[in-house]
Amino acid sequence: MIYLGIDGGGSKTTFLVTDDDDTEIRRFQTGPSNWLSVGKDTAAASIGAGAEQLIDLKLDAVCGGFAGAARPEGLAFYKRVLEPLFPEAKVRIESDAFIAYTGAIGLAPGVLLIAGTGSIAIGRKNDGTMIRVGGWGPHFGDDGGGFWIGREIVRAALRSFDCQKRSDFETRISRKLGVQTITDVVSAWAAGTIGVPEIAGLVPEVMTLWPHEPAARIIKSAAEHLRWLVETAVQRVAFPNCPVCASGSIALHPLMRQLMELSFAEPIAPAERGAVMLARQAVSLLR
Question: What is the pTM of this model?
Answer without folding.
Answer: 0.79
